[in-house]
Amino acid sequence: MIRMLSMLLCLSLFFMLLAGCWSRRELDELGISVGIGIDKAGKGYKVTTQVVSPGEIAAAKPSGNRAPVTVYEATGETVIEAIRKITTMSSRPIYLAHLRVLVIGEALAREGIHKPLDHFSRDHEVRTDYFVIVAKGTTASNVLKILTPIEKIPANNLYLSLDTSQKEWAPAATVTLDELISDIVSDGKNPALSAVKVVDKQIGQTQKNIEIIKPPGHLRFSGIAVFRDDKLIGFLNEKESKGYNYVTDNVKNTVGSMACPNGEKIAVEIMKSKTKVKAKMSNGNPRIEIKVSMEDNIGEVECQIDITKRETIAELEKIAERRVHDNIMNTVKKVQRDLKVDIFGFGEAMRMENPAAWNQLKQNWNERFSDLDVFVTADVKIRRIGTVANSFHKEGEE
Amino acid sequence: MTGDGFEMTGKVQISLRQFTVLVMFYSIGTTILVIPAALAATAKQNAWIAAFAGWLLSLIITALYVKLGSLFPRRSIVQYAALLTGGWIGKPISLLFIFYSFVGAATVLYYMGNFMTTQVMPETPIEAFIVLFAGLVVFGLRLGLEVLARTAEILFPWFVVLFVVLTIFLLPEIEMKNIRPVAEIAFKPILSGAISYISYSSLPLIVFFMIFPANLNRKREAGKAFLIGTLVGGIFVIIVTFLCISILGADFTERNMFPSYALAKKINIGNFVERVEILIAGIWFMTIFFKTVLYAYGFVAGLAHLFECEDYRPLVLPSGMILAASSLVVYPNVVYMLEFDSTVYVPFSFAIGLALPLLLLLVAGLIRKKRNH
């Protein structure tokens, strides 16, 4: 009898374990936040979060008359307070593990971003795999309120469009939180983030926006935001952003047009691009050598040349090399002259190549950066010319 | 101080292979969770070189242990400390050793609970993890050394599989620029890194003197098994440190509480195999279990030998309760833990793990010299 009782007692202990996790949270109890925006608000922050409305996203038949996402806003002295305050409006606690984008309003970015970002690196729930972007000329809150076509979740749209434009067009910077932090703490590189613009925010915030075939309200990435340490100081335009990506070796695939020898245009698709940045000391002065090697295909011919000739290809390679060279040089010159911060990581290159010299240089690196000697060599190989040889307009003239 | 009561040490026999695996698990222990951050704090991008240097030092320390162990093939450290220096000095020395094992077991329990409440389930009270884990340790100790050794042998392949999966999945994330410049090697940070490595990973191996070599079935090759265990364990730690530095970068590794967990979070194969970090955490659940259980074994078996008990088992349950309770108070907060580990713990570990065996070796040498004259 006692044996039986003790057995039962032991067995009942297992129920404690079988009852499941202490900290369990079911999917239908979470407000899954896909985008979060931080703006300045008085002394504290305004946090805007885009939360998916599961009924509209996951259901087989969405009702259609509700927005696929909801935006909550709250202000607080600190970021975490503002996030918790959202529960006064939302039925579910905000769950940040599926975050796709973190948007920072321009006004806050100009003041400095390291304070509001601490919570995102400290909290156990937040990962580091989302993109950090800057709202150009507007607030983060406006960016997160635009409804987008095709992708039901606007934050997903931002994430994917940044990712694809980086892969196919190369004027953007896909920076995740951990990369951003290491750029902020590094002496030899300053951060650069993608900037996003809001077009027609009035209509963009309504469901009507995505009922129109060409939604008037939309988001568009436009160039790169340049930081000094953690403060926004300016923007690069699209062309300069591409130059930036050439230097930092982030070009995967892009296209560029150039002038033919006789003046009209020809476009090439860059299939492969590899950049090496070397930092050297010559006569006590730092010297940066950038070497770009690319493989191109011809993508569009609008001028009267015979591209079936080897000399023509060689000549086009020369033109393409000059073009890339000029683009990089102009970007570097502009950053050296106007922004005066090393966003290219030349200092990092120096630290890796010549640690001893770097220890001397790092004290006033940003000042030195402005009058660094930068040399660019480009090596372009045109490999293929597409599915036809010469363009048909040539034949039409004969 | 000799008698039949001491022969019980040799009754339980484990195989050399089991011993090797135990040593390996033990030297990986909590080291795998915390050492990358500690090494990156001093040696920056050369943390993996510091781990390598620590690994070499740990082989020397193991060689010293093997030497000491070979002098007393049938007795535990508690027994021969009393034998060598007499009861009045030997017993307090043994108490120091037992205290060290106790503190080790309590802190490792805290580590386990702290990891779970910081990274995985912050709302769950730390007591829940500690009581469950301490229960497991008590269970293991009551079943005895042979069962623990067999468990280690069974878990070893699983450990290797998880580790290989982690490493392979992380290979695409490696960025060699993070470990450069390799040339920026300074002697001092590497040495201080190596010292913290051995104080976490190899000096605590002293608790094996409760097993080594008295409980091994082939005592002649026991030293080799000890060395191989440390060698293999160290290789795993070096690999993890290298992955941390080359993937997370020195700065992020240094700032992270648990860099190897942050590392596992980085796994993303084609947006499909991702968010698997908790499976990878299985690696350290295994290693931390063996570290705790062996520390606790050092504590209870040490007590049993000190008081010349027939068996250590009656002490296990009360000791487990004391351990669980003291693990909750051993560190008042995380910052205290970080400070204790980087300041007090290092000399503490050196005193017990290095000075104590050196002293015993010296006394043994003197006695032998006297006898020869």
From TrEMBL, chain A:
InterPro entries: GerAC_N, Spore_GerAC-like, Spore_GerAC-like_C, Spore_GerAC_C_sf. PROSITE patterns: PROKAR_LIPOPROTEIN (PS51257). Its main location: membrane. It is found in: Membrane. It is a lipid-anchor. It comes from the Bacteria. Residues 222-386 form the Spore germination GerAC-like C-terminal domain. Residues 24-197 form the Spore germination protein N-terminal domain. GO terms for cellular component: membrane. GO terms for biological process: spore germination. Keywords: Germination, Lipoprotein, Membrane, Palmitate, Signal. Pfam families: Spore_GerAC, Spore_GerAC_N. Belongs to the GerABKC lipoprotein family. This is Ger(X)C family spore germination protein.
